[in-house]
Design a protein that fits this description.
The complex is a heterodimer. Chain A is of the alpha/beta class. Chain A is built from five helices and seven strands; from the N terminus they run H-E-E-H-E-E-E-E-H-E-H-H. The chains are: A alpha/beta, B alpha+beta. Chain B: Pfam families: Complex1_49kDa, NiFeSe_Hases.
């Protein structure tokens, strides 16, 4: 594992790598501890969606990261906000730096490059986002459902707050045995 | 002659795997040549439910995510919510939270040791370890009133104090576990049969652990020195220099197998006892909650626009929460939960590939899998088979806790 860098150094490296594609950044500070108060800092950046892969590669160049999570938020509008959170320089006391990458993905083109070629462990996260929000990951090999049943209807995404949401989820998740038999043509 | 391949399904209901998950293995003779892991048999959509409730209700909903470590998710939830709201818990509350978090770690590790012994066929070891674990559950019940789902954490503090009268009982428990843990180390680490069944089984290299995004004791056993309590300290952990327990510090090398993971867990019990002892001795005086009035707390949440990521090092690995408050509702508008098994289950497929059928239970058990999405519902019946209503159940629970207090000689 590499030696920790300060938030400013990391930010400088990301700015060099991304240039104009880094839209905004924020360094958040939190005080931790009771008797020995210390400041813990996090980096939050907003980027252009087409620079996503470049950003991830820049983070991987800093240190082999730990993927905290991939989350997404659908506010019901035209875009889905994607949130990727990485931790770098973990294994050092007080050293882990959390880098959170946010970007808006337009709903007409919900496609992202996969990061499973860099980190195999990201597969579960991508499969979950794919079935819950309908984001397609280019290059993701295993595209089976992770949590949802295999017979889940196409075009229904539980975390979407638009017409693709699950207003009629109960109807879909609780099919009766007779309905399933009918679907299979057994009756 | 071509070898015949057989298909061995393990789970979702199987003696070797008591969780709703399915491992499908294709075997040639005794060797596994293809593995597929299927999840989601009882996905409850807890995050979705949380986004419909207020933050205090969501906190207690998060406690129900995991059936064993019921403090891990609330811990991560309160840390995250406090970061998003800009609240700091009072010092005494921070120490109490750490004590309860560590008590949880000890009982979870002992539970795992019993489970892994059971998977290998040592059922007497299972009963012995679980009997030893009872003392800790009694202490948790003494402190919180419950053996599980303690409902003791709150955004900006805790709801119950650790009083002077409790301290003696906890210290007695610590001295009991110091001896018990030495006995466990002797039994697990020196036993030739246990060694033979675990050395080289489920061997995970450091590189694999990083690439598969493994967390907690699984990653530490592979030699990755990661621990949230060390990397991003919070609460009382920031006062104590917690260091990740890795096999290379104990025996000089990390092999990342089932034996190493047992060792890491056993030594972490010692570490937890030290942390509890420190917290009891150094616990500051003061109030328990930053905002004691729930109505005022919810009103603050309704006014807050903000988001945060928080983490807690649960017994099985890191639990990470992401919460966003949109300033319109008194609950989270986005809530994302990552439990340790979510990442650690990734290690099953590569480890099982090329292993033998007899190793399936050990590989499956070694990460301490918790599906965290088990749809849990409990119906309690009395001797006559009638369903007991919640009010009666609550009364019975209170009576039992009182009896326990009398037995341990603790006044409230």
């Amino acid at each position: 594992m590499k030696e920790p860098m300060s938030v400013e150094e990391v930010l400088k490296k990301l700015q060099e790598a991304l240039g104009e594609a880094l839209l905004s950044h924020e360094v958040r500070e939190y005080t931790m501890g009771v008797k020995r108060k210390r400041t813990y800092r996090e980096l939050w950046i907003t980027i252009k969606p087409d620079a996503f892969r470049k950003t991830v590669e820049a983070i991987f160049a800093l240190d082999y990261p730990h993927l905290h999570f991939i989350a997404g938020e659908d506010g019901g509008g035209e875009t889905i906000t994607m949130i990727y959170s990485f931790g770098v320089f973990h294994t050092h006391p007080w050293g882990e730096l959390s880098i959170t990458v946010k970007f808006d993905l337009p709903k007409e083109n919900l496609v992202l490059p996969t990061i499973t070629d860099l980190m195999i462990g990201a597969e579960t996260n991508e499969r979950e986002i794919r079935e819950m929000l309908g984001v397609e990951f280019e290059g993701l090999k295993n595209k089976r459902h992770l949590f949802l049943p295999d017979d889940w209807p196409e075009g229904k995404y539980p975390w979407r707050r638009d017409e693709h949401g699950v207003e009629d989820m109960v109807k879909h998740t609780h099919r009766s045995v007779n309905e399933i038999r009918k679907m299979r043509g057994e009756e | 002659m071509a070898k015949t391949q057989y298909y061995v399904p393990v789970g979702p209901i199987h003696p070797a795997l008591k969780e709703p998950i399915r491992v499908e293995a294709r075997v040639e003779g005794e060797k596994i040549v293809e593995v597929d892991v299927k999840r989601g048999f009882a996905h409850r959509g807890i995050e979705y439910m949380g986004m419909k409730r207020n933050a205090i209700q969501t906190l207690y909903l998060s406690e129900r995510i995991c059936g064993i470590c019921s403090i891990s998710h609330p811990y991560a939830f309160v840390v995250t919510a406090e970061k998003a709201l800009g609240i700091e818990a009072p010092p005494r509350a921070q120490y109490i939270r750490t004590i309860i978090g560590e008590l949880e770690r000890i009982h979870s590790h002992i539970l795992w040791l019993g489970v892994v012994a059971h998977e290998m066929g040592f059922d007497s070891l299972l009963f012995w370890t679980w009997k030893g674990r009872e003392r800790l559950l009694d202490i948790l019940e003494l402190l919180t009133g419950n053996r599980i789902n303690y409902s003791v954490f709150m955004i900006g503090g805790v709801r119950r104090d650790i009083k002077e009268s409790h301290v003696k009982a906890i210290k007695d428990m610590i001295s009991y576990y110091r001896i018990f843990n030495e006995e466990m180390k002797e039994v697990f680490l020196s036993d030739p049969v246990y060694k033979a069944r675990t050395r080289g089984v489920a061997q995970l290299s450091k590189k694999m652990a990083l690439e598969l995004n493994a967390v907690g004791p699984v990653a530490r056993a592979a030699g990755v020195r990661m621990d949230i309590r060390q990397d991003i300290p919070y609460d009382a952990y920031a006062d104590i220099d917690v260091r990740a327990v890795v096999p290379q510090d104990i025996v000089g090398e990390a092999r990342g197998d089932a034996y190493d993971i047992t060792m890491v867990r056993l030594y972490e019990i010692d570490q937890s006892l030290d942390i509890i002892e420190y917290c009891l001795d150094e616990m500051p005086e003061g109030k328990l909650m930053a905002i004691p009035n729930y109505v005022a707390l919810l009103a603050k949440i309704r006014r807050t626009q903000g988001e945060a990521i928080g983490a807690h090092e649960a017994p099985r690995g890191e639990v990470i929460h992401y919460i966003k408050f949109d300033g319109k509702r008194d609950g989270p508008s986005v809530w994302k939960v990552i439990a340790p098994s979510y990442n650690n289950i990734n290690t099953w497929a590569p480890l099982l590939l090329g292993a033998e059928v007899a190793d399936i239970p050990i590989v499956v058990a070694y990460i301490d899998p918790c599906m965290c999405c088990n749809d849990r519902i409990a119906v309690v019946r009395d001797e006559d088979g009638r369903v007991i209503d919640p009010a009666t159940l609550h009364r019975k629970a209170v009576e039992k806790t009182r009896k326990l207090r009398e037995e341990l000689g603790v006044r409230t």
